[in-house]
């Protein structure tokens, strides 16, 4: 199972401060697993989009079946808004995958 963990600042300040994605769906054999491929494309694509569109290289660590990043607060509020929009978009895309394949993907969100 793939577990997506989203950490938000607080119930009042819903800013995403970190995320972690770990595990394997085991929906199909490695290389043919559309769920793992979809989750990987969405999550790595989001990290790349943040770097390209917000100009922030996220402190991310990635290994086989693992992607984690802390989201540093930027001085420029428009950059923070862009980053948060991209992260919220990632959650929507991952939630869409989980809605169809909930047996293989779970999304957890909590506050600091």
Automatic annotation (TrEMBL):
Signal sequence span is: none
- InterPro entries named among the record's database cross-references: Peptidase_Prp, Peptidase_Prp_sf
State the source organism's domain of life.
Bacteria
Name the UniProt key words of this record, in alphabetical order.
Answer: Hydrolase, Protease, Ribosome biogenesis, Thiol protease
Classification of source organism: Bacteria, Bacillati, Bacillota, Bacilli, Bacillales
Protein name as catalogued: Ribosomal processing cysteine protease Prp
Q: Which GO molecular function annotations are given, in alphabetical order?
A: peptidase activity
Matches recorded under Pfam families: Peptidase_Prp
Q: Name one GO biological process term.
A: proteolysis
**Protein family (similarity comment):** Belongs to the Prp family.
């Amino acid at each position: 199972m793939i577990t997506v963990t989203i950490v938000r600042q607080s119930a009042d300040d819903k800013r995403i401060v970190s995320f972690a994605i770990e595990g394997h769906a085991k929906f199909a054999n490695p290389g043919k697993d559309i769920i793992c491929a979809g989750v990987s494309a969405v999550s790595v694509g989001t990290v790349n989009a943040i770097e390209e569109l917000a100009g922030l290289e996220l402190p991310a660590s990635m290994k086989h079946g693992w992607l984690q990043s802390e989201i540093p607060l930027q001085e420029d509020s428009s950059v923070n808004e862009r980053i948060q929009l991209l992260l919220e978009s990632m959650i929507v895309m991952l939630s869409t995958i989980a809605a169809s394949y909930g047996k293989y993907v779970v999304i957890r969100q909590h506050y600091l």
